[in-house]
Structures are given as C-alpha cells and as structure tokens.
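Annotated sample (chain length 179).
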Amino acid sequence: MEMIPITDQQAIKTDRFDLRPLRRADCGPIEMFAGDQRVAQMTTSIAHPLAPGATEAFIARALAANRTEDVWAIDGTRTGGAEVMGVISLQRMDRQQSEVAYWVAPAYWNTHLASEAVQALVEANPMDNDTMFACVFQDNPASAKVLTNAGFAFIGDAEGYCVARNATVPTWTYVRKMR
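Output written by the structure step:
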C-alpha cells in the first residue's frame, strides 16, 4: 500500500458546529477530554493515563504536511458552544477508502453531536472516498447507532486492541458506500 501525503484539509460547517482542522491551541481541551478514562476506553489509540506529551504529538501528526489522516475538532464557538467538543478523523486507506474515527467529550454525550459530526463528514466526503469504514467496540452501542444513523451498514464482528484497557476488545465493523 502506498501512502499518499495529504496537503489540504477543508473545514466543514454545520448549523450547530464547525469541523475544523486542529490547532496547537487545542492541546488543553483535547488533553482534558482524552485524559478522561471513559473517553480513552472507547478508542483504540488513547492511553489511560494519558502520557505526557501525547496530545502535543497527536496534534503535531495532525498538522504535518505528510500526514495520512485528517483530524477535525468539533468546534461550537460560532454558535456559542465550546471550542473543542470532540474530535473526528478520516484515516486514508488505499483504493479511495478511509476509516472514520471519533470521540465526543462526555458533556456532549446523548446530544446527537457525534451523529451530526459523522453525517457532516459523510456529506462533505472531503477525501472524495468511494467507501468509508468504521469500527466500534461492542460495549459501546451508542457509537454503533451513530454509524447506522449516518447510513453505515454492519458488515461483521472483529477485534481491536484498546490501549487504555490493555486488552483486545470485540468490535463491530461498518461500511458506507459513497457512490
């Protein structure tokens, strides 16, 4: 698989929030929310406790010219909300495919924020994908509902390693055909 560098990243506006590229100034809020064990345990890659410098390194990777993943902050400031309410990303894969990943700060759970963010990303299709994939842990049915609400179809069970849990966790895999 050849990794193609991504050089541009568009902002995506919705009625409720903007999906915008990360900024170095997002370090504090991201560190606070990603450091929450409830958030970390529902992701594959966030450690708990969060290591010193991990958030800075994450933002540096997201801002790098040769990145293979676009990461957006879910920013509600335009509508009177918080500057960072969560994060959503697209990891570039081969054959015009990408994988969606997201997390939302606990204060915004059960507010449909994740559903709106995933739907906005799907509608914008900023990488011009033919297909988007996503995996969620089976003990997180709310995230599965986010995906089905955005038109993703369940395609099977799998497993993923969760750094915060230091364990392999059963997952559900979803796909969304874009064309």
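Annotation: The first strand starts at residue 12 and ends at 13.
Annotation: The chain has one domain: 12-177.
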